[in-house]
């Protein structure tokens, strides 16, 4: 008679966490950082169709790294959650905190009950009327939630990128300054560190950039690309 195969709960959770972290680390990073007029989202992403950064509702946006099909399912669920809540109650009742809590429950349930966890890491951000009321929440594959202040980096080489942001970020950056810092930080990844050549140059057409702009009414999300993005990165926008 064969012996039943047994894995302790601690080992099972550790194996799931290692599996998810390895999947997330293979992807390009995303940087989210606050600036004087809102919140900027920057990712190295040459695709024009497969977005890592998306609008959820009037003042709420979403960024993700990891497996595209998994975080796209979460994005769609977030849009549905926001639409139903805004229609049933009031548009102001759709908040990043509420959405982050909903995502945390979903990711936590998948991590605990499914054989394979989601290989994703998310940021849900909401731009406030004033900089001090901005909200940035980071969610990991197991449903853990962290309330971030100022900036966050996730995905591959997140530690090196965060170190660069920690050195240079400060409150009150202009949009152009924030974008230039984000691109420099993305270029300071593990590959650049190993080569010892300084930050990699990332062309504007290999970037996906969006902002939540507090100076706009109602829908604050907008994408930046083409000459507008190039001008901001060059300091002439």
TrEMBL record:
Q: Where in the cell is it found?
A: Cytoplasm
Which InterPro entries does the protein's record reference?
A: Ntn_hydrolases_N, Proteasome_alpha, Proteasome_alpha-type, Proteasome_asu_bac, Proteasome_sua/b
Role according to the record: Component of the proteasome core, a large protease complex with broad specificity involved in protein degradation.
Q: Which gene encodes it?
A: prcA
Q: Which UniProt keywords apply?
A: Cytoplasm, Hydrolase, Proteasome
- List the HAMAP family hit by this protein, alphabetically: Proteasome_A_B
- Residues in a coiled coil are none
Q: Which Gene3D superfamilies match?
A: Glutamine Phosphoribosylpyrophosphate, subunit 1, domain 1
Q: In its UniProt entry, what is this protein called?
A: Proteasome subunit alpha
Q: Name one Pfam family in it.
A: Proteasome
The pathway where this protein functions is: Protein degradation; proteasomal Pup-dependent pathway
Q: Which family would the database say this protein is a member of?
A: Belongs to the peptidase T1A family.
Q: Does the record carry Amino-acid biosynthesis as a key word?
A: no
Source organism per entry reads Kineococcus radiotolerans
Please name the PROSITE patterns in this protein's record. PROTEASOME_ALPHA_2 (PS51475)
Alphabetical GO biological process terms: modification-dependent protein catabolic process; proteasomal protein catabolic process
């Amino acid at each position: 008679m064969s012996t039943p195969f047994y894995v302790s709960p601690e080992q099972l959770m550790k194996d799931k966490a290692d599996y998810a972290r390895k999947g997330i680390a293979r992807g390009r990073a995303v940087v989210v950082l606050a600036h004087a007029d809102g919140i900027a989202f920057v990712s190295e992403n040459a695709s024009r169709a497969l977005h890592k950064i998306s609008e959820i509702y009037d003042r709420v946006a979403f960024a993700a790294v990891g497996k595209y099909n998994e975080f796209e399912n979460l994005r769609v669920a977030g849009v549905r959650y926001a639409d139903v809540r805004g229609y049933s109650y009031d548009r102001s009742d759709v908040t990043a905190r509420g959405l982050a809590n909903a995502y945390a429950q979903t990711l936590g349930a998948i991590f605990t009950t499914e054989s394979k966890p989601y290989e994703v890491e998310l940021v849900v951000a909401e731009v406030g009327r004033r900089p001090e009321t901005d909200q940035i929440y980071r969610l990991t594959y197991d449903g853990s939630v962290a309330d971030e202040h100022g900036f966050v980096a996730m995905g591959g080489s997140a530690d090196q990128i965060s170190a660069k942001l920690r050195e240079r970020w400060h409150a009150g950056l202009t949009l152009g300054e924030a974008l230039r810092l984000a691109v420099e930080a993305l270029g300071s990844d593990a590959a650049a560190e190993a080569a010892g050549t300084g930050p990699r140059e990332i062309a504007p057409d290999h970037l996906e950039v969006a902002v939540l702009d507090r100076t706009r009414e109602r829908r604050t999300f907008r994408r930046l690309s083409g000459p507008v993005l190039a001008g901001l990165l060059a300091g002439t926008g």
